[in-house]
Amino acid sequence: MMKRITTVNAKEEIAKLKNEQCAEDDVFFQAMEEVLLSLLPLFKSDEVYAKSAKNAIIRRLITPDRVIKFQVAWLDDNHEIQVNTGYRVQFNNALGPYKGGLRFHPTVNEGILKFLGFEQILKNALTGLPIGGAKGGSDFDPKGKSDFEVMKFCAAFMKELHKYIGPRIDVPAGDIGVGAREIGYLFGQYKSITSSFEGVLTGKPYFFGGSLMRPEATGYGVIYFTEKMLELETKDTECLKEKICTVSGSGNVALHAIEKLQHLGATAVACTDSKGTLYDHRGLDLELLKELKLNRRVSLKEYIKKHTDAEFIPVSDYPEDAHAVWDIPCYAAFPCATQNELTVLDAKRLIKNGCRCVAEGANMPTTAEAVRIILKSDMYFAPAKAANAGGVAVSGFEMSQNAAMQKWTFEEVDTKLKATMEEICINVSETAKEYGVEGNYVDGANIAGFKRVADAMIAEGI
Ligand code: NDP
After folding, report:
1. Could you identify the atom of ligand 1 that is nearest to the CA of residue 338?
2. SS3 state of residue 244
């Protein structure tokens, strides 16, 4: 008789891996556990996936194809040699070349990159594009470094990374701490080493091969997804209009989410950075935010010098497991900074304050327990894997443009992005319905993404 995947053997797989892995892997197990538990309705009802025990799909899916770890030695402005660690986790290429961002942040370690790479497999699958899953980065902190130091670091990082990437092999992009400046330096070094001008990185500046709208893609995509989800669930096509919204982060994803909210007539009243929460009850001044965070790269605290009515609440004013931004009454909350930044206490406050919707712009910003609380409430919840797939979708569009030596207009990319986010949303919603978990976008996203990857893995054999 065919062996079925059950809760027990999905958990056994995690337990086996836990024995082999290091403490850094906690966040990776958190992500894996969430996915595997979500897949239970699929394993129970679908004969094809019952065979996945035979094909060892789970075991193969949760084990990266390879983890590359390397030393990055670079020269700082004082002519002293600094040493960081670089990584690339090539997780799964069943659907296409490995694809996923690079993160430069002091908290980066192998466990965080495995979590992000694992999530990326299913997210990329949801876009419907031919791309696999990967993630990489370094514990290097670009904050406080001169341009020259960032360039030196990127060159040293690419000196090693170039051996493992290529337009048909692995195509990295940006993430926290890696924006157009860093991608430019990384691309320049790849080109000098290989003498090849090719689409090996996405998120490039427009004038040498980048796609229009890549900077906006993730933030805009989150709002397109949320709008569609609210329309499907409430039948209201203008759900966000004139609504109060709160956003965490003030980086690439957060600022563009705020921008799209403003386009739709919503009022974003709060955002955050690593120092605290900014609250401007009249609505955030986006131009000033962009000047502070994208151009001058300074704290949000500077904002209140111009807008004296606004309030800056330092992180230290709140307990470690709660955040001021989620204590502000709102219709919709958009966590767009980092992982595990919306906790149980935060979720309870959002519910108490009448919030109707949480949509994740960052990767796994809501803790597992907080997700459970939200799903039990009457709030709508858009999980990162589906809601923030707009960035990688436009990265996929950038790969197409590079391969065809073409440039698409802003409107073309925007139209395709909106259509992609709406398709993802409908697919996730219908999958949830099909497997008896209607309205649960977490399970819907995990099942829909998994099915696409598992189908390819089974068809390709070992
Ligand atoms: P940025 O580096 O542009 O911005 C990150 C923001 O989050 C900054 O405001 C930063 O504050 C804040 N932040 C970072 N780490 C912490 C922390 N430990 N505690 C509190 N605040 C923190 O990154 P992005 O906007 O690109 O990415 C944000 C999230 O979205 C990440 O989870 C990323 O993986 C995810 N994502 C990004 C995509 C993209 O296209 N960029 C695509 C899909 C997902 P400060 O300014 O003080 O540093």
Report:
1. 32
2. strand
Please choose, from the candidates 352, 345, 292, the residue with its C-alpha nearest in 3D space to the C-alpha of residue 320.
345
- Annotation says 159 is catalytic: no
Q: Is 401 exposed, middle or buried (0-12, 13-18, 19+ CB in 10 A)?
A: buried
Specify the CATH number for 66-196; select among 3.40.190.10, 3.40.50.10860, 2.170.16.10, 3.90.1580.10.
3.40.50.10860
Contact yes or no for 364/122 (Cβ under 8 A):
no
Question: What digits encode the pLDDT tens for the residues 71-126?
Answer: 999 999 999 999 999 999 999 999 999 999 999 999 999 999 999 999 999 999 99
Cα 18 to Cα 24: distance, rounded to the nearest angstrom: 11
Cβ of 363 less than 6 Å from ligand 1: yes
Backbone phi and psi for residue 50, each to the nearest 5 degrees, phi listed first = -60, -30
Report how far ligand 1's centroid is from the alpha carbon of 415 (Å): 25
Identify the CATH number of the domain defined by range 217-387. 3.40.50.720
Which helix H or strand E contains 316, and what residues bound it?
Answer: none
Ligand 1 atom closest to Cα of 275?
47
Phi/psi-derived region of residue 72, left when phi > 0, alpha when psi is between -120 and 50, beta in every other case:
beta
Q: What is the mean pLDDT of residues 363-373?
A: 95
Look at residue 4 and tell me whether its pLDDT is greater than 90: no
Segments making up each domain of the chain, as ranges:
7-61, 66-196, 217-387
